[in-house]
Amino acid sequence: PQELTTVRVQDPRVQNEGSWNSYVDYKIFLHTNSKAFTAKISCVRRRYREFVWLRRQLQKNAGLVPVPELPGKSTFFVGSTDEFIEKRRQGLQQFLEKVVQNVVLLSDSRLHLFLQSQLSVPDIEACVQGQGTQTVTEAILHYAMSNCGWVQEEEGRP
């Protein structure tokens, strides 16, 4: 069978609303039959600056392979906040869709931890460098096990 990977960026949520350190995070839902991925279904929440970090890491490790662009970080935006958040969500989704189609980028374990674990950026780095308490695969499987019920509920299955 053909390998398929569906990645969706959805459900933007404003965290710490009304405070000076408010930010938006997005749900990243991944469904795949690709051998490249440890877990076949995963769901994590990430914020824009984590995407920026991921893109930087992919660029460092991809050599001459071009890494897709992220939507811009707008400090001045004309229009509603909802409109901006939606445009950014679409841009982040396009970014991830292009990344998961690229064999070179797909071989980066940081990408897998970003998509399939809720580890923080420093913890992803530690894990990739072998300084964490778990291997990359263990971290992903641990997260997948802890989230099974939630993912099935997302799918609308009993």
UniProtKB/TrEMBL annotation:
Presence of the UniProt keyword ATP-binding in the record: no
SUPFAM superfamilies reported in the protein's UniProt record: PX domain (SSF64268)
Record's bilayer topology term: Peripheral membrane protein
Gene Ontology biological-process annotations: intracellular protein transport; vesicle organization
Subcellular compartments: Cytoplasm; Endomembrane system; Endosome
Keyword Transmembrane: no
Keywords: Cytoplasm, Endosome, Lipid-binding, Membrane, Protein transport, Transport
Primary location: cytoplasm
GO cellular component labels: endosome
Residue ranges of domain PX in the record: 4-121
GO molecular function, one term: phosphatidylinositol phosphate binding
InterPro entries documented for this protein: PX_dom, PX_dom_sf, SNX10/11
Family, per entry: Belongs to the sorting nexin family.
Annotated PANTHER family: PX DOMAIN-CONTAINING PROTEIN, SORTING NEXIN-11
Protein name, UniProt field: SNX11 protein
Source species: Cephalopterus ornatus (Amazonian umbrellabird)
Native organism taxonomy: Eukaryota, Metazoa, Chordata, Craniata, Vertebrata
